Amino acid sequence: MAQLLILTSQVDNDVLPSLGLLSHRVRQIPAQPAQLVNAPSSDLIMIDARTDLAGAKALCKILRTTGLTVPLLVILTEGGLSAVSADWGVDDVLVDMAGPAEIDARIRLAIGRQALEQTNTKIQTSGVVIDEASYSAKVQGKPLDLTYKEFELLRFLAAHPSRVFTREQLLSEVWGYDYFGGTRTVDVHVRRLRAKLGELEQLIGTVRNVGYRFNVYEDDSAQTDIARS
Questions:
Q1: pTM of the predicted model, to two decimals?
Q2: CATH assignment of 3-117?
Q3: Does 3.20.20.100 match the CATH number of domain 122-228?
């Protein structure tokens, strides 16, 4: 039995009718950023996106950038499925008319994946520590103030040390296939990342006419390519 928190604009209605057939403890609060300050603790958060896709997407991003440590699911109508993309930052989706067996399975899988990930969620290499569970990063022990995309870009590069990625590959992996912005977006985020890395700005290397890579130095001998703990 899990403690579930549903953020919805229709607090007095059943967002997931079949959820009432399960034994999970459920709380519903208004889907407003201000409500998150004193939100009750939970094992999993669901966001009701049935009637306001744009608002739900913005709320998902707010949750991710504030260091969400529990799985995040979004509830949609069947027609809304086409609107969800990687940049929402959600762990899974649920159609509002899903049956109890499907709902229970997705809840169990999301919580189970989270538990597994939390046993191995830190990337440590070349003076940088990236905590995937809390969406935070430190350089030489000092916290980095990163936006969600800056964090995702740093995490992706650090997870593949010394491997060169083109701008197009980084757009696909970090921004998602449906992103329509140009490759200059990558350059802008790399420049910002380097500025925040300070003395370690050289960790983000440029390969002329190709793209970018995360540099690992020979004196980082205690960690072969990348160490996770």
A1: 0.54
A2: 3.40.50.2300
A3: no
Rounded Cα distance, 89 and 135, in Å: 12
Write the DSSP symbol of residue 52: -
CATH 3.40.50.2300: which residues of the chain? 3-117
| DSSP strand pairing (3-8 vs 25-30) | parallel
- The pLDDT tens digits for 62-71 are 888 877 778 9
68-90 residue pLDDT tens: 778 999 999 999 999 999 889 99
Question: Which of the 8 DSSP states describes residue 40?
Answer: P
Q: Is 228's pLDDT higher than 60?
A: no
Tokens of 3: 């403690």
Count CA atoms within 13 Å of residue 125 on its CB side.
Answer: 22
Q: Where are the beta strands (DSSP E) in the chain?
A: 3-8, 25-30, 44-48, 72-76, 92-95, 122-125, 128-131, 136-139, 142-143, 165-166, 204-207, 211-214, 227-228
